# Entry
Amino acid sequence: MEKLIIKGGKKLEGEVNISAAKNSVLPILAATILNGNNCTIENMPMLEDVFVICEVLKSLKANVIIDKLNNRVKINTANLFDNESNDELVRKMRASFLIMGPMLGRFGNFKISLPGGCNIGTRPIDLHLKGLSALGAEITVGHGYVEANAKKLIGSNIYLDYPSVGATENIMMAAALAEGETVIGNAAEEPEIVDLAMFLKAMGAQISGEGTDTIRILGVKDFKEVVHKPIYDRIEAGTFMITAAITKSLFKINGVNEVHLKPIIAKLTEMGVAVEINKNSIIVDGRKKLNPIDIKTMPYPGFPTDMQAQMMSLLCTVKGTSIITETVFENRFMQAVELKRMGANIKIDGRSAVIEGIDTFTGSEVKATDLRAGAALILAGLTAEGTTVIEDIYHIDRGYVSIEEKLKRLGADIERVSYCK
Ligand code: UD1
# Structure
C-alpha cells in the first residue's frame, strides 16, 4: 500500500506540464476495437485507468504494446476474439463499459459484466442501452451482466434524456459501423467527445456536429491505420490552477486549451484569482485575498463535476459563505467528511454543500474515497498547518500522472511512502 505525506504551508513556483486527458484516452482505447489496423496513441498518460482498459483489450486478445518510455500505446485488434471480457477488470472501472458499443458494432453481439468504478452515486447505464437498442440491438440485463445482440446495426435518431458523456461515446462508436446515418440529439458536448470524434474521423469515420448537442454519424464499412495525439487534461489543469490559488502562489501551467478551461477560469477569476492566458499555457496568481462564491456543476460547458471536490477545498480556505450545488451526480460530496477531519466547516443538505471559510486546515490522517476527492485532500494538505497523511491513494493514481513528482517540482513538501496495513 502507498500513502502521501504532505507538510503544508509551502509557497509554490515554477512550471508544471499537464498530461493528456484521461477521459479522452479511455474511449479512444475502446474505439481501437472498431479498427482491425494499427492504432497508435501518442502522449499517452501512464495512468492506472489506462492500464486497466489495456488489460481489458488484452483479455479480448488485442495486441497491446505500452511504451512507457515514449508515452505511446500501440494497439492492433485484428485478431480480437468476441468473447466475454474479463469480469474483474470491467467491474474495477466504469469506463470499461465503453467497450460495449465498439464490440457490438464490430461483432454484432457482446456480453459484459455490469460496470463498477468510482463510488459516486448509482451511475446507471440506461442511456447507453437505450441508444444501442435504438440502433437495433436486443438487450438483456440479468445476473450482473448485460448482453447485446444485433444481426445488423442500423442508423437511427436517438434523443438522450440527459447529455451523458459515456452514452454519447458508446453510441458514437457503435454507430460508426452501423448501416446509414445516426443522429444523437441532446448529446454531450465535452471536449473529450470532440477528441473521440477526431480519433474516429482520423481512422475513416464520417462524423459531424461533435462539440454541439447534435452529432451525426454516417456508418462506414471499415477503417484505416491511425496515429492520434489526445487533448490535454482540463481537469488536471484545473486542479493545478486551484493548487496555485489554495497555496497563494504564482506558477505557470503548460499544456492547456483555454477554451476547455473557460468555466473554471470564470469561477476562479470571480473569486479574485488572476489568470494570464497565453497560447498553450496559463499563469495563475493566487496571492490576492479571495472571495467566497457559489458554484453549480453542469454538463459542459458548465462547471465540471470533476472539479467540484477540489473547489470545495479551496472554498474552505476563503472567509465567508460559499455554496456548491452538485447537479450531475448524486452522492458526490464524499470528500467533505475527510475535509471536516482537517477542520473544514461544511454542511451538506441533499445536493448542496454550504461552506463557511476557516482560518486554516489542520494536518490530519485522511483517506481518498474517490479520484477527485483524493485530489481535494492533497490540495487541503498543501495549505494545512502541520502534516497530512492521505491513504488509499490508488484512487488518485487512476487519474493523475505522478502527481507528487509534479508538485515537488513546484516546491511542495510531499512524499509517497509504501506501508503495510
Ligand atoms: C464521464 C467522466 C467522469 C465525469 C462525467 C460527467 C469518463 C471516463 N468519465 O463519466 O469523469 O464525472 O462524465 O462529466 O469520461 N446517467 C444515467 N444513465 C446513463 C448514463 C449516465 O442516468 O445511462 C447519469 C449518471 O448517473 C450521472 C449523469 O448521468 O448522474 C452523468 O453521467 P455521464 O455523463 O454518463 O458520466 P460518465 O460517462 O460515467
Q: What stands out?
A: The pocket of uridine-diphosphate-N-acetylglucosamine is lined by residues 23, 26, 94-95, 121, 123-128, 162, 164-167, 192, 305-306, 328-329 (CB under 6 Å). The longest strand covers residues 2-7. The CA atoms of residues 8 and 383 lie 5 Å apart.
